[in-house]
Each structure stands twice: as structure tokens, then as C-alpha cells.
Amino acid sequence: MFETLPKAEPDAILALMARFREDPRTDKIDLGVGVYRDETGATPIFRAVQAAEERLVAAQTTKTYVGLPGDLKFCRLLGEELLGRPLASESAMVQAAGGSGALYILAAFIRRAAPATRVWLPTPTWPNHPNLFRGAGLALGDYPWLDRAGRALDFAAAAEALEKLGPGDAVLLHACCHNPTGVDPTPEQWAEIGAIAARRGWLPVFDMAYAGFGDDWERDCAGMRTVIGRVPEALMAASCSKNFGLYRERAGAVYAHTAEPSRRQAAQDGLEAVTRMVYSMPPDHGGALVRAVLEDADLAADWRAELTAMRERINANRRALAEALAARPGGQGWGFIAEQRGIFSLLGLDRAQVDRLREVHGVYAVAGGRVNVAGMRIGDADRVAAALLDVAGS
Ligand code: LMR
């Protein structure tokens, strides 16, 4: 039977990560996979997470099952941070295995509730989004995101497309720090998206993977909160990989919000039913760490302080790269890098340019020229700028 398997294309981001590891050059720079790096090139464990882990190991007495929805206290604390309010009786939730696990549970939940739903993804989007939604058996559509130059949001085009949708459609929205573009709506545009969703009756589906990496936690969550406040139902997949540095622990959660409390239990049952089918119960450790941090005022304050420092470094890197480009001949027109938010910018490089960037300059970027600005040491800004200008002119 295995001979009938279709050839699986390697995942471009993960393949690049492996290729970077194998590259013997000592001055290589990884702007590929979306992982935060500090000025030494390390991806640190948050101090608060480390302290929580020590406490957890000392206090834990069993590894028996937690239960089908996972750790609901973790889900509630994380959800309240993201929504900025107590989670009322209208919210169903389950813990999930990281952001991708959360998205798959959410996709399977949509399929269970309304199998004919079409899920609309922005163009471009994270390459795993189509896999996850199609893999759950849902039909896909796309809506525009970037303007012709590929630097800013074409809100008129996005809004026009979203106005054509209605009940039976679900729209995937990157809650902040859009991956791969770094291009987010303004608060006014988020309000307009909420108004369109409410008027047209489509289901907003949020992928929230980078809260805290953009402007600040509250502003990063504000657009999503605005939209959720305007619609009768919404879904959210949350990841703790980046903003708690828990990449390999696969900590995430899924939320189904309904303005009609009598539908909450059906949503909870539906989420638990698909979780049981996919992996029975989620892994506990990462969520337990997040819970331990958020439950403790001192650890939570330290986590916030470290997240703030990370965000400041990301935004300083953005400014340094834009300035290094601007200071070089032919380096005008890259100011958008400093304006965008999160760890990614999409530089619109073609395949040959991305290959040259990697092979000649040792600078790794994802296809299309997605760069992770957090992968760069600030002292490397000039070298990266020179490499980008070389390939952009090639
Ligand atoms: C990325 O976009 O690079 C990250 O979200 C890692 C991944 O799984 O693709």
C-alpha cells in the first residue's frame, strides 16, 4: 500500500532549519524559522518558566491523565490574558498540542459542526495553514492581504473580498504579527473587519501565535478583542511557543466563543470529541508551566518584563536593518521593515535571490524572502543589508 503514497514535499521552513544546522560556515545567519533569538544567537528559556519548572518538578507527584480537555485552569488563565477580561460562561476551551495542534482541533471542530464550511486564508499566509485546514477535510478559499508592492496592507481589497462572504464561510485572521508579512490592520481596520463579520455572518477564526512580539500585549490583542466583541461566534487558536519560549513543549489552547451561553456546552463537547479522536489528551507540561507563571504575581511580572525586552530587541533589529539599508547606495525603499511588526518581514525575493542570499552570503531566508528579524544580531545589520542589496540587484 505504501507505494501509492503521494510524494510529500518537504516543509520549506523545517527543511531550511535542517539545512542551516548542517551548514559548516561559522558566520551563517538564520533568518529562517520563526524562533526568537537573543543577541548571542540563543533561544533562551524565560527566567519565569525556569523557576516554574523547578517548582513543578519538586511538587509533581503523578503523571496520570489530566483529562480530556487538558488543564482548564491553564486555558482559562491564558484566555483571560488574551481577551483581557474574565472568560465568561460563553467560552468553551481545550488545551492543545502547540499552535498547530490548536489549529487542527479547531479545523476538525468546524468540520464536525458544518462540513460544508469554506475557510478563507489571507494571501500570503503561513504555509502550514492550508495543510491543516485541508487535512481536516475543509474547502479553502483565499483573500488578498498585501498591496501591489508587497509592503503594506491592501485593506480595500481585503475588505471587498470579506464583504462577499457570508454564513457558511470562516475567515482565518492572524491576530497580530502577520506571518509571513509583518503587516497588521490598524485598530480602525480591525473595527471594520468586525463590522463586516457581524454584517455578513461569517465566522472569524483567529490564529494567535505572537502576542507580545508586536507593539505590546494589550495592543497586540486589541484587534482580535474588537472583532470577537462584535460577532455571535468566533474561534481562536493560541500558541505559547514564542511568547513563553515553549517551542518544543507544544503548549497551546483552542477557544470557541459564543454570545449564546446555551450553546457553550455543545461547543465544549464538540472540542473534546475532536481532541479524543486526534490525540486523546494534550501534553501537560508546557501548559502547566504557563499556568504556574500566570498564577504567581511575581513570576507573571518577570515573564512580562522579559517579553517586553524581547519585543524591544525585535523592534530595535527592525530599525537597525532599515537604517543599515538606507545608509547604503541603492538602499532606499526598505523603511517598511521598521514599520512592520512581529518577527517577520516579507522582502519579495524570488527563488534565485533567496538561494544566492544563502549560498553566497550565508544568510538564510524562507522562500519569497521571509526574514525573521529576531534571528539577526544587531551588529550583523550592516552585513545583512549588504547581502540583501546584492541579491536584490541581481
Ligand atoms: C514559522 O513560521 O517559522 C514558525 O511558525 C515555525 C513553523 O512551525 O513553521
Automatic annotation (TrEMBL):
CDD domains: AAT_like
Pfam short name (any one): Aminotran_1_2
A GO molecular-function annotation: L-tyrosine-2-oxoglutarate transaminase activity
Listed cofactors: pyridoxal 5'-phosphate
Gene3D superfamilies: Aspartate Aminotransferase, domain 1, Type I PLP-dependent aspartate aminotransferase-like (Major domain)
First-tier enzyme category under EC: transferase
E.C. code: 2.6.1.-
Keyword field: Aminotransferase, Pyridoxal phosphate, Transferase
One cellular-component annotation, GO: cytosol
PROSITE patterns: AA_TRANSFER_CLASS_1
Biological process according to GO: L-phenylalanine biosynthetic process from chorismate via phenylpyruvate
Domain Aminotransferase class I/classII large stretches: 26-388
Domain of life: Bacteria
InterPro entries: Aminotransferase_I/II_large (IPR004839), Asp_trans (IPR000796), NHTrfase_class1_PyrdxlP-BS (IPR004838), PyrdxlP-dep_Trfase (IPR015424), PyrdxlP-dep_Trfase_major (IPR015421), PyrdxlP-dep_Trfase_small (IPR015422)
Family per similarity comment: Belongs to the class-I pyridoxal-phosphate-dependent aminotransferase family.
Subunit structure as annotated in this protein's UniProt entry: Homodimer.
Name used for this protein in its record: Aminotransferase
Source organism per UniProt: Albimonas pacifica
